[in-house]
Design goal:
By secondary structure, this protein is an all-alpha fold. It is built from eleven helices and no strands. α2 runs antiparallel to α3 and α8 runs antiparallel to α9. The longest helix is centred in the C-terminal third of the chain and has 24 residues. The protein is globular and about 55 Å long.
């Protein structure tokens, strides 16, 4: 390989090999690439909802960008099961350091002159993004809840507790955009394809 070649993007493309829900028996396996894309769609939706119904001025594109890259560290670390990641404050602190090291390793794969374009996104260092990260975190939890709903509706009791846990986590979030999505869009994820085709709002 030529010395000028960077592996930043080729490494990111390996997100499709990172399996999520590693301790769970899934009817439909989910990889990190799928989760990131779905979280970006949902975060963008929450931003649009905020702008449309709550008088916000969110940058929808930036919100989607943050969501798309929000789990990039896991291309190196893998998806650590939640019971382990949040086992104790010490464990969470240690994992945060591991994530930071992973992101540094990833950033270093870029040419130096390109690194600043990604560092604020990967490391969450831009103050003006604070409100957008609230949407990303809400979208991340929403994506996990939709996954759990889908598995339970497919007859997989393995995800019943995950469905309950993610619902309770969303209930505690101070995010009106998330509440609006749940009230107006979430139930449609339980529809059949034919029902989706007929479903519309006037």
């Amino acid at each position: 390989m030529a010395e000028s070649q960077s592996s930043f993007y080729s490494i990111l493309f390996r997100q499709k090999y990172i399996k999520r829900w590693g301790l769970m028996n899934s009817v439909t396996p989910e990889n990190l690439c799928e989760h990131s894309a779905e979280t970006a769609i949902l975060a963008h939706a929450l931003a649009v909802i905020g702008n449309t119904y709550f008088g916000k001025d969110y940058d929808c594109g930036r919100t989607a960008e943050l969501a798309l890259f929000h789990d990039s560290a896991e291309v190196y670390t893998g998806d650590l099961p939640t019971p382990i990641k949040y086992y104790s404050p010490e464990m969470r602190k240690s994992y945060a350091k591991i994530e930071s090291n992973a992101l540094n390793a990833l950033i270093e794969k870029l040419p130096p002159e390109m690194r600043s374009a990604y560092s604020e996104t990967l490391f969450n260092t831009k103050e003006s993004d604070a409100g957008l990260w609230i949407l990303v975190k809400a979208a991340d939890k929403l994506a996990a809840h939709i996954k759990a709903l889908t598995e339970v509706r497919a007859g997989n009791g393995e995800f019943i507790q995950a469905q309950r846990t993610t619902r309770e986590a969303m209930d505690k979030m101070d995010c009106p955009e998330l509440m609006y999505f749940r009230e107006h869009f979430l139930d449609a994820f339980g529809l059949t394809l034919d029902e989706m085709q007929m479903n519309y709002t006037s």
